[in-house]
Amino acid sequence: MAYSEPAVVTVESVFPVAESNYIGVAKPTGVAQTSTSGVMAFSDPDILSVAFSGFREPTFFDDLYFKIHFTPGKVDLGNVLSAQTQEIRVWNAFLSDKTMSSYLEPSAQGINVTEPVSTPYVMTALEELSYTVTVSTDGPPQFSEQIVWTIEGVEYAVPVTGQRVVVWPFGPNWDQPLNESLEWKTDIVTSYDGTEERRSLRSKPRRRINYRLTLHGNELNQFQNLLFGWQDRQYAMPVWQDKALIADMVAAGETVIPVATAVRSFFKGGLAILIKDTYTFEVFEIAEVHGDSLVTVEPLEFTWNARTRLYPVNLGTLPSSIPTQRLTSKVMIGQIEFMADPVKTDPFIPGEPAVESLDGYELVYRKPNWSSPVGYDMESDSVLLDYESGAVQKVQKPAFPRQTRRVRWLLKSKADIASFRAFLGRMKGRYTPAYVPTWFGDFEVTGVSGLGSFAITVRRSQYGSMVGVATTQFAVLIRMRDGRKIVRKITGVSSPDQESEMLNIDEQLPFEVNPTNTLMVSLIHLCRLAQDGVTINYQSDSVSTVEMTMVTVKA
Question: Is the pLDDT confidence value at 506 over 50?
Fold first, then answer.
């Protein structure tokens, strides 16, 4: 029986015995017989053939054959930053000829298909045809088209989708800082006694980049035209603060780019750009990221010399209004802000664990930059009863006074910036608190506390009577002049005399503490960020400052 499509087949029975349990009209008449001489003799039985109808049981053979196969079944080109080519193979998996009566390619601008045959065309059994789809950068920003074949009266369609992205080649002038904002989102419910319940609403922060640019001559015309034709669409924006220089020349056709990738926001599946000027660049997709190289998905189209600039690329959009100023007829300054795509962008948050913790919360040892003042506010949580006549009453809630600090930090290297970004990733905006020293001289050591002591004698400041063991500040950082430091919890406060107070601590001292060898004793507050957004101000691509506001919370 030959394989084909009919559902009904004819089978001949070889057991036509004439009994009620068999199909047929007679028993076989030819049987093996033994002669009187002992020689075995055979004769053919009389077989009666009986035809009946049935169905062929499907097998694994049917999973592959008796179909028209399209590989791939969908062409999703993703972000089209340069001309893209994709092959579609059409295979006639029938064991018989099939007629392709018509073929229809997309009519959208910028999509061309090279067809191997013209219709009508008879595809022989098991024949395969190859179609080449080419998508250029010219055309609408987004496209969703179909290539349609009609074979034996049945229509088959392969979707072709993607979005065109234009490179934004204008970098910052660095006369002012480039500002990068990372924005989480947190929902906070605060109880009457000040206890907070926090819920993080974003799995990763949104990224904004804001900078000032200066353009001259023909760059102005290019700038205006890019905005005129593409402002409401996505651009491919280099991450200017993550500049790297390739170590050696890279020839066209190669897939490995020698470059130091550490502490820069390259990631597998992301984009990067090699750029010389606003017209000379090449964008590629990253297949692998190594410490000393990047591997591209497709071979490079052009040759690039050593020390060519290389940047990670984010997809982003510009605001609806972009302010610019013409200083002369050929010089312009402007302020640019990009909002990176919240889904396709990796905001570069290294997954580093906390170095030290206290009671399950990270302990932050980063010192403030005293080049600018540290703001410090006290906010009482109370309710004012005032009916605008007669007495006024202020009712204090059982919560604690909130202490708010505005600190400025200096990040001196790319590694320091990456470490700080990891810290932000652990904080997740307002979601996670951490223990942060005030870096103030909150206590002045006046007595000698020997090795193994469980108390520190400090100058009286009414800490015991006004504060005691508070839920927001019950630990101290003791810094010694030789660089040693220890953290201890305050378990109680007593007043041995009118001039001093004694801080009882949870663990014994590992060394003697006295007024001479002690540099500073600072309180440690349990704090969270006051806002979900943090802005890093890049003074250059490797030095930045950060200003953050922190507020105390209950442990």
Answer: yes
Beta strands in 380-433 (DSSP E): 382-385, 393-396, 402-411
Tens of pLDDT, residue by residue over 332-356, are 999 999 999 898 888 999 989 999 9
* CA angle 112–118–119, rounded 5-degree value: 115
Residue keyed to tokens 């107070």: 501
Percentage of residues of the chain with pLDDT beyond 70: 91
Task: Give the number of other CB atoms < 10 A from CB of residue 20.
Answer: 5
The DSSP code sequence of 82-99 is S-EEEEEEEEE-SSS-EE
Q: Is 154 helix (H, G, I), strand (E, B) or coil?
A: strand
- CB-based contact 121:136 (threshold 8 Å): no
User: Which residues contact residue 51 at a Cβ distance below 8 angstroms, ignoring those fewer than 6 apart?
Assistant: 10, 11, 12
The answer on pLDDT for 47 being more than 60 is: no
Kindly indicate the confidence band of residue 45, based on its pLDDT and cuts at 50, 70 and 90.
low
CA distance 180 to 337: 10
- 19 to each of 16, 47, 121, how far by Cα in Å? 9, 14, 55
Cα(350)–Cα(362) distance, integer angstroms:
16
Query: Where in 416-555 does DSSP place strands (E)?
Result: 434-437, 455-459, 475-480, 485-494, 500-505, 518-529, 533-538, 544-552
* Chain segment 372-407, per-residue pLDDT in tens: 899 899 888 777 888 888 888 887 776 678 889 999
- State pLDDT tens for residues 120-134: 999 999 999 999 999
3-state secondary structure of 60: helix
For the stretch 196-247, pLDDT in tens is 999 999 999 999 999 999 999 999 999 999 998 888 888 999 999 999 999 9
Angstrom distances, CA of residue 304 to CA of 245, 254, 283, 293 = 11, 10, 12, 15
Domains of the chain: 1-57 (no CATH), 63-164 (2.60.40.10), 178-340 (no CATH), 349-555 (no CATH)
**How would you write 343-388 as a 3-class SS string?**
CCCCCCCCCCCCCCEECCEEECCCCCCCCCCCEEEEECCEEEECCC
The pLDDT, as a whole number, for residue 127 is 92
Secondary element (H or E) of residue 220? helix 218-230
Whether a cis peptide bond, with omega within 30° of 0, leads into 16 is no
How far is 443 from 520, CA to CA, in rounded Å?
8
Dig out the tokens for 29 from the structure: 């008449």
Characterise 414 by phi-psi region: left (phi > 0), alpha (psi -120 to 50), beta (else): alpha
